[in-house]
Amino acid sequence: MSAGTQPSGGLDFEGWTCPLPLRHTPNVVMGHGGGGAMSAELVESLFVPGYGEAAATELGDAAVLPPVEGRLAFSTDSYVVKPMFFPGGSIGDLAVNGTVNDLAMVGARPLYLSTAYIVAEGTPMEQLGRVAEAVGRAALAAGVRLVTGDTKVVDHGSGDGVYINTAGVGVVPEGVELAASRMRPGDRVIVSGAIGVHGVAVMSCREGLEFGTTVESDSAALHGLVADVLATGGDVRVMRDPTRGGVSATLNELASASGTGVVLDERLLPVPAEVRDACGLLGLDPLQVANEGKLVAVVAAEDTDRVLKTMCAHPLGAEATVIGEVVADHPGVVVARTGIGGTRVMDMPIGEQLPRIC
């Protein structure tokens, strides 16, 4: 900006001018968030090509959706992971998979997503393009359409890289009822695979930690696995994806909402050696580390075997295992039986252990 001066030497605020940013620039500038020609160019030349076939024919400020049969499910979430790119994924596919999974956990088939970006001034266009391409690939793989969105640019110091907000719409088939209130003593707790992987992948990349092998994020869309599980006809009481706060936070929420207790067997927890090593080094509990491609299911005891068999037959549930059960004792409390025969209370995590994980 530039300003004129008054005869007295003071600033002439009425004379301020703001030159138009360059139309061709390697970095994001404030003009890209102004809603004018530069914003339109950003959508047409970066986001639409990045989204590819997953994008709707027209991307406006609102989308008119066709009618569907069944109950609508709606979810929204925001993603602020740092770094934006990490082993096994990026903020782009994380944003799509996270919202798809939130819909899947209530039994919905995800259909449509919106994407809203908050981008820091100076972010390289190349990075923003990679994020958009990751969003498009993940949406196409999940079978959802990207139908509307928005972009805002904030100045230096007000943001860091790219933040994404997604909202999703899906449809829940008749007869599907998943809720913590349906949990009963005797139900079994199943986790679909190794836990703590996503959080350790991001932290190892951020802190430069090495464990002899690369730990890759487990980010994935789980609605196909959920559909297979529901198709068994087994009595699945509730499902959750254990993201922030990990398995511990998820089970504490379910215990509190259902008025039941949960008992885990630590010997059955599927914690990879590299995750266990990293958590030991960082002073973390693997049960409290974020996951982005795993689910926790509470299933009636008599249906556990067939649900578990179906999960293990799916690529995203190949390592599924029973880790505990629902009990009438200590309602609202989760405890873990240790390998030496004792028990410990698994408290709800306080605050954020690992900032900018999702």
From TrEMBL:
SUPFAM superfamilies: PurM C-terminal domain-like, PurM N-terminal domain-like
GO biological process terms on file: protein maturation
All copies of domain PurM-like C-terminal, residue ranges: 184-334
Superkingdom of the organism of origin: Bacteria
InterPro entries: HypE (IPR011854), PurM-like_C_dom (IPR010918), PurM-like_C_sf (IPR036676), PurM-like_N (IPR016188), PurM-like_N_sf (IPR036921)
Domain PurM-like N-terminal as annotated: residue spans: 61-172
Pfam families attached to this UniProt entry: AIRS (PF00586), AIRS_C (PF02769)
Family: Belongs to the HypE family.
Record's protein name: Hydrogenase maturation carbamoyl dehydratase HypE
UniProt source species: Marihabitans asiaticum
Lineage: Bacteria, Bacillati, Actinomycetota, Actinomycetes, Micrococcales
